[in-house]
Predict the structure.
Amino acid sequence: MKKILAGLFILIYQLVGIQSAYAFLQPVPGYVGDGSLYVETDSILRNGNSATLIYVENFNQTQAYGSKAYLSKATEIRVDCTDKRVFALGEGFYSQPSMQGVLLGRFPLRDEFGSTPAEGSWNFNLIKIGCGFAL
């Protein structure tokens, strides 16, 4: 009887217990580059009127990084949700799409002034995604 109750408890816990949220790459509307642009959803951290996130740019053709080639670039940004400004914090270069393969280098950007993207642009859509506004 105890085994049946234990099994039932485990089944109920799996059905209604804490569910893990799985990260995925969310496409960013409005991107017009040679490839695709995504937000890594598990990187979104909201804190008051700002948010940080990582967006990933996947390229159709290899890009030059010194003597090495990369197929994706991940850029960490901070978004000011009130003023709708974007500040670049750092970027990393990867040998394969979607931040896969070898990390070729990671560099801080220290953007102090930020930029205000035009409404409807892919940069503006990053603000919407990061701040939780409807697209």
Observations:
- The first strand starts at residue 25 and ends at 27.
- Confidence is low (pLDDT under 50) at residues 11-21.
